Amino acid sequence: MDRAFNPDRYDADGQLVLASAEGGGGGGTHKATSGPWTTASGVAGELHRDMQTAMTDLGHAHEGLGNGTSGFASAKALGALRPGWEERLSGIRDLCGHLDGEMKKVGVEFHENEVGTKKSFK
């Protein structure tokens, strides 16, 4: 099936040709760093804080909503929507907090691995 979509990956005999065969593959110019992991971690941490702020703002916006609005359908509808929004925002907040920590760990491990690999060639 793959051969029909990627014919250039096969030789004349129908055998799959690997990128590493006959000197193919990478040219040794690939540079990988922990930077993207650290950056992504920072973004996740920022989103975590933003979701917490959004939840606080939502709570403040609903303070006193019942005072003077009893009987209004719009006030009742807003009150019914709040738990769903709180659940969504807290789920996003928690996930972003988790991703922040995990991506920081990956960045540190990646950096330590790179340092160890470089030392092994000296």
Automatic annotation (TrEMBL):
Residues 1-12 have a biased composition (Basic and acidic residues). Residues 31-41 have a biased composition (Polar residues). Residues 1-41 are annotated as: Disordered. This is Uncharacterized protein.
